[in-house]
Amino acid sequence: MKMEVVGDVASLDPDLLQLSELSPLALNSNPFLAEELFSLWLSLPETSRLVKNLLNDAKTGSFSKATANSAVSTATSLPSTFPSSSTPPLSPRSTSGSPRIVKQRSSPSLLGSPLKLVSEPVREVIPQFYFKNGCPPPNELKERCLFAIDQYFYGHLGLQIQEFKAVTKDICKLPSFFSTALFRKIDVNDSGIVTRDQFVNYWIGDNLLTMDLATRVYTVLKKPHCRYLTQGDFEPILHKLLASHPGLEFLRSTPEFQERYAETVVYRIFYYINRSGTGHLTLRELKCGNLISAMQHVDEEEDISKVLRYFSYEHFYVIYCKFWELDTEHYFFIDKENLIRYGNHALTYRIVGRIFSQGKMGYEDFVYFILSEEDKSLEPVAPYEISLIMTKLPDPPHCLFRFKCIDLDGNGVLTPNELQFFYEEQLHRMECMAQETVLFEDVLCQIVDMIRPEKEDYISLRDMKSCKLSGHVFNILFNLNKFIAFETRDPFLIRQIYLFLERENPTLTEWDRFAHREYIRLSMEEDIEDASNGSGDIWDESFEAPF
Question: Residue 201 gets which letter from DSSP?
Answer without folding.
Answer: I
